[in-house]
Every structure is written in C-alpha cells, then in structure tokens.
Amino acid sequence: ILDRAIFKDNSIRFKFVSSFEEDVSINLRIPEWTKDGEEFSIDLSIPYTGASPDSVLSEVIPLTGWEVNTEDNSMTFIYDARLANGDRVLLDKASYALDFLFFSYVEGFFTQNTESESGEVITIGVYSNWVSGGLWFDDPKVTFEVENAFGFPVRTYFNKMELTNVLDETFDMTGEFITNGVDFSYPALDEVGQVKRDTYQFNSANSNVQEIFNEKVKLVRYDIDAVGNPDNDTNITGFLTDTSYYKVDIAVELPLLGYANDLVLADTFDFDMSSYDLAEAIELKLITENRLPIDMNVQALFLNNSDQTIDSMFIDGPRIISAADEISPGLIETDGEEVTFVNIENEKLNRLLDARKIAFRIFMSSTDQNNESIWIYDTYGMDLRMGAKIKLQ
Hints:
7-stranded antiparallel β-sheet; single chain
C-alpha cells in the first residue's frame, strides 16, 4: 500500500478529445502529486478546426522529482473543461500514457515478499590434500554478515545448511538460527540512506558446528530465503529507495586452535625417469624446513603410470622433521633448512625407470607432544624442495 513515493526517470502524456464546435480550454490537476509544495497542474486547449471531433495531445512531461502522497493507494486525475462563455463541459475522451512506474523512494506498507539465494558453496581448503587422520578444532564458526538498506523488517530463513566431509558424507547444521531464522536490523523512516549491519555466528554454543567440523568438512552448501516483512504486519510503515539492498556474506572461520590427530596429507608431482636409462646412479637432494610447532614425518613414494607404488624414498621409514620452537604467539624459530641426500642405484634405480610421479606424504600428530591445543597461524607452514644429480654411464 503506497503512502508516499518520488518518481524517477518517468514521464507522462495526456490526450483530450472534444466534439464541440468551438475552442475548449482545459485545466488538469492531480492532487496527490506535488513538487516544491505545488500541486501538479497543466493547462491545455483544444482549438476548433471546423471538422469535429478535435483533439489535443500534450507534450511529454518529465515526472522525476514529483512526489506522490496517497492515503488509499489511488491517484485522482481531475480535469476542468470550459467553453469560451465559461460553461463547464464533459469531453468525449480524456486519457493519459504513463510510460512506466519508477521511483527513487517509496514509503508505505510492504506485503510479505521472499527472495531466495541457494546453491552457494564454500570450499574448505584445509583438507584439500587429505589422506587420513584429522584436525580437531576447538572453536570453529560459520559467520554471516548482513547489510540491510531496506526500511522494513527482513528475516533470513536457512532452508539448508549442509556440510560435506572428505568421505562425501553429508551433515545438516542444527541450532536456533536454523529453527527460528534471523531478523535483520533495518533503518527507520528518519534513517533513509543508512545501512544497518549485523554479524551472526553458528558456534558451539548455539549449534552443532563443532561436532560437524571435526568430521573433516570440505565444503558447505546453503539455501537461504530473505523474507521482507515476514509477519505481514500492517502497522509497519516502511520504505525503499532506488539504492536499497540487502546482502548476506557467509564465511567459515576455522581458528586453528586445536590439534592434529594422526593427520596425513599428500601431494603428487611429475617425476618422469624414462629418459634416464643410461644413468648409473642418482643422488636426490631433499630440502625441508618445518615452520610448525609439530614434528613432521615425511615420506616420498614413486608411482608408475597407473599410480601404483614402485618404491619409497626412505627405506627405513619416514624422515622426521623436528618441530619449530614457538617463541610467542605467531612467532616461531627453526633450525633452518634440513638437507637430506638419498642415493639411488643398482636395483632401486632400475625400478625407478618406470616412475612417472612422486607423491609426498606428510604425517603429523600434535597429541603425542602435549595434551593442549595449539594455535596454527598463517605464517606457519612447511617448505619442501627436491633436486637431483644424475651420474651417467
């Protein structure tokens, strides 16, 4: 129900038809339209041409900036047509053409309306190279930030918050936000042009997010409905402008305060030995630097074209890379790069001529070192590089 609005980029044109055999003067006014305190009004005349009926077509009249005020969602077009002696007459036809209804501002009662946003996916990269084991997160969160510039209530309903783990098992998020929805803040009538912002979180206190995320979640899918005036309250007078919008940003927050539980990560690289059939021996040089406060075990597997394991780099088992020392939160100190040489010759060399890839597997477990959770910062990590020296026959 429209109470007040302001036209934008609109125009209107009027047409009148008269069968009177004399000139007719016309005044047209629309009481619900005002600009700078003045009511909309135009004067036209239908000149008699000697061949009745006669008509007049007004110029195209721009409406940008004209304000509409109405109490019953209607507008009144009143014309006063008079002959030369002042007699008021009824014309054969009175019409108008309004090209379209665009407003820069609308105020009134807005009925319930639903906008959907579905099929969105958030990918969790922490398990992109997962093989086995896991990470335990002490305080995972799914945070959504809301911006609302509409001047009426908007409620978000989460039709689906679905999390999929590395085994492609699917779990549904539960909690009060899922059950009841979330009400956005919104600007009042005296706050036109303002944007209200809110932040909400699915956390361990109001949902099952921690339980799910510790199932090695790799992606989140969501389906959201944003419902304007969700209670259809006729007592709420709201507004919208040509710049009004709402926006929901959803992010997964995984503060890595937790521990690694027999976590195994792997990555595979090309390692084609087919052109080295004349090699007598190969010396591999592995350079590592552990910038995590967790001991690492590193092994490399040589794979053939079928991704079958031909051999391993370290015969006696994975190479241990000592944990870095944590000086203060976010600051670690290492002993620098560790260099390991691996000689490959004889039967092992013959086997590796079929190698086409090398797969590095990294094993980590912080639970063996202490019973307390640790912080993992974005400055932490592990560097691993490899080179080869080939001795030809």
